[in-house]
Amino acid sequence: MGLTVASGHTAPAAVAPLLQKIEDRSCLIGIIGLGYVGLPLALAAAKAEFRVLGFDINGPRVAQLNRGESFVKHIPTEAINTAARDGRFVATDDFARLDEPDAILICVPTPLTRQREPDMSFIDKTAEAIATRLRPGQLIVLESTTWPGTTRERVKPILEAGGLRSGVDFFLAFSPEREDPGNADYQTSTIPKVVGGEGPDALALADALYSRLVVRTVPVASSATAEAVKLTENIFRSVNIALVNELKVIYEPMGIDIWDVIDAAKTKPFGFMPFYPGPGLGGHCVPIDPFYLAWKAREFETPTRFIELAGEINTAMPHYVIERLARALDNHASRGLKGARILVMGVAYKKNIEDTRESPSLRLMELIEERGAVADFHDSHVPVIPVIREHPRFTGRMSVDLTAKAVAAYDAVLISTDHDDVDYAALVAQARLVIDTRNACARAGIVADHVFKA
Fold first, then answer.
1. What is residue 283's predicted lDDT score, i.e. its pLDDT?
2. Gap between the Cα atoms of 443 and 452, Å rounded
3. Are strands 341-345 and 412-415 parallel, antiparallel or unpaired?
4. What is the pLDDT of residue 297?
5. How sure is the predictor about 144, in pLDDT bands with cuts at 50, 70 and 90?
6. Rounded CA gap, 91 and 89, in Å?
7. Catalytic residue at 441?
8. Alpha-carbon distance 293 to 299, whole Å?
9. pTM of the model
């Protein structure tokens, strides 16, 4: 007789052994994708005394991790060394070993195509790889951000193609990642985890597993609900950032500083939450996730005007910044943008990290060069721009040294990413013209006639 996990429901025989493995921590956890999401998750599982087998298609990365070396600045090498030394973490690029883990957590990218539609190729290929080695009694959890229904409509059929049945032979769930790279206040284990399953047994198993990895789990009605939670979180950010970006454009000709407005408004103890403008959206979540829901909504002939408008506003911000740059050069440097030399400060998508995914800085550099100017960059966290599918022209471009002589040679400095390790007072003193998209100078108490906000 199976394990009863809910009133009136008798679980399949495969549930009890797996649940017992989770409870006594003999469960081997497989994590596919050892990037900004998968690696912290692997280390959290190892710290919780589970054994972890990490899978990645990047052979050099696998070798680096097995040497105990970190490739992510905010993940210390010591954490990887400790997990490996204790025998709790091993990385591999051998996907034939997917039958070994008892639970497989999928942390692969979900980008957009050039047509801004979901690119499901990483999820599809991963599910196909799992399907070839799928065995009874395994728990499969998708963590990659995607449209509501992906787990049920896309992953489940691929896994069931070999004859095993979801909810009987294996168990399928969705638990969205909530990583915030570079945020020292929250780590994987201290962020509550939303969990939705394909049926009560999958939910019970996924909840049991994650409850041992993180501070608290939040079970929801289904995998589709969990998928919708993640999209809702990031659409909320996208819409509110679009709002303050639009207000910035509206207030500027009125002589009103949006940063002053937000600082005053956030003193209200209720009914207002501060969001801040910028040169555009970056990272793997906020610029991309809203389009997943907009795409899915078209299947139901449901308009997503709010979401799409926010996307349009945020996508247009780099153009606004370039116009502000061009105007500042015209009015205060007596020259146009064409032929100018511009130093872009920061190519990471946010401060104090090395992640360049969807960085608006790269779009700004593109627009600067399209206008016939030279776009160099300085970023202490990104010494060399890595391979980026959307911006191949910048691959291998190197950060310039931030010397007084170098800064003075540029016609303008454009602050796009406000890393904390920059001496903004020295930068302003050395630069001919500064265009600040992050309010970095004002926050440092620097006011000068040649510093302009954008």
1. 74
2. 13
3. parallel
4. 93
5. very high
6. 7
7. no
8. 10
9. 0.92
Q: How far apart are CA 334 and CA 438, in angstroms?
A: 25
Look-up of token digits 């003999």: 26
Distance, CA of 28 to CA of 21 (rounded, Å): 8
Measured at the CA of 394, the angle between CA 393 and CA 397, to 5 degrees, comes to 135
| Residues belonging to the chain | 454
Contact 154, 127 (CB under 8 A): yes
Cβ–Cβ < 8 Å for 401, 376: no
pLDDT for residue 389: 82
Mean pLDDT for all residues in the chain: 94
Q: What is the pLDDT of residues 248-283, one digit of tens each?
A: 999 999 999 999 999 999 999 999 999 999 999 887
Question: Is the CB of residue 448 less than 8 Å from the CB of residue 428?
Answer: yes
Structural domains in the chain, sorted by start: 4-221 (3.40.50.720), 248-453 (3.40.50.720)
Q: CB burial class (10 A; 0-12, 13-18, 19+) of residue 130?
A: buried
Nearest to residue 150, comparing CAs of 331, 299, 340?
A: 299
- Report how far residue 144's alpha carbon sits from residue 31's, in angstroms, rounded to the nearest whole number: 12
Q: Residue 438 phi/psi, 5° resolution?
A: -120, 5
More confident residue, 390 or 163: 163
SS3 of the chain: the string is CCCEEECCEECCCCHHHHHHHHHCCCCEEEEECCCCCHHHHHHHHHHCCCEEEEECCCHHHHHHHHCCCCCCCCCCHHHHHHHHHCCCEEEECCHHHHHCCCEEEECCCCCECCCCCECCHHHHHHHHHHHHHCCCCCEEEECCCCCCCHHHHHHHHHHHCCCCCECCCEEEEECCCCCCCCCCCCCHHHCCEEEEECCHHHHHHHHHHHCCCCCCEEECCCHHHHHHHHHHHHHHHHHHHHHHHHHHHHHHHHCCCHHHHHHHHCCCCCCCCCCCCCCCCCCCCCCCHHHHHHHHHHHCCCCCHHHHHHHHHHHHHHHHHHHHHHHHHHHHCCCCCCCCEEEEECCCCCCCCCCCCCCHHHHHHHHHHHCCCEEEEECCCCCECCCCCCCHHHCCCECCCCCHHHHHCCCEEEECCCCCCCCHHHHHHHCCCEEECCCHHHHCCCCCCCEEEC
- Token reading at 208: 């049991």
Q: Which two tokens stand for residue 127?
A: 């599910």
Whether the Cβ atoms of residue 241 and residue 275 lie closer than 8 Å to each other: yes
Query: Phi and psi for 385 in degrees, rounded to 5?
Result: -70, 125
